């Protein structure tokens, strides 16, 4: 299960990430509301853990924007505000549960598990066009032909399959695949897109990774001749 933490207190965000990673979750952190809203509406997460008090776009605004874009991902709000009016505001903004700081980690885990149970099980394979990606083996397959992807190729291919026709900027791909602290550049994205294009072609896939100037990359299924 993939969880996104949107929390401007980096120490708290990282401590929650460590806790959840040890429990087997795939966790990412972002540290401001604007980035959090952009990530959340990609629709690739099973749960959002959202702080309320953030500079710029606060948690209430993020939740409203996420719901306005018809993203139904469960939202667990974390806040130091404990008044009834604050909890009501959070729920009305689109949160599914409201947890007050400081909280017991057991309560946090119980809330997360309860919200995730609504989402059902994980998928083992992703498909698009005539091509599938096995998430357990990192193998890309098409019409009986298959090829194994490297770890970085797999992460990039999985993300593109999750977002499909939606354009993903090079900047977003860098953060999503290489991480905030990486020294990777946009050239790394271009190189790995090139690797994937060659591998897709080698197995006869009808998936194409298309580039749009200044907008990034997206997937298309090639029309049959």
Name its key features.
single chain, 225 residues, alpha/beta, five-stranded parallel sheet, four-stranded antiparallel sheet, 8 helices, 41% helix
List the helices and strands and how they pair.
Layout: E1 2-6, H1 10-22, E2 26-30, H2 33-40, E3 47-51, H3 59-68, E4 75-79, H4 84-93, E5 97-100, H5 105-117, E6 125-128, E7 131-134, E8 139-142, E9 145-148, H6 151-163, H7 170-178, H8 186-202, E10 207-212, E11 216-221
Parallel strand pairs: 1-2, 1-3, 3-4, 4-5
Antiparallel strand pairs: 6-7, 7-8, 8-9, 10-11
Helix pairs in contact: 2-3, 6-7, 6-8, 7-8
Radius of gyration: 19 Å
Strand content: 15-25%
Oligomer category: single chain
- Helix vs. strand class: alpha/beta
Query: In which range does the helix fraction lie?
Result: 40-55%
What order do the strands of the largest sheet run in, or round the barrel if closed? 2-1-3-4-5
* Inertia-based shape: elongated
Mean pLDDT across the residues is 88
Counting DSSP E segments of at least 2 residues, the number of strands comes to 11
Short description:
With 225 residues, the chain is of the alpha/beta class.
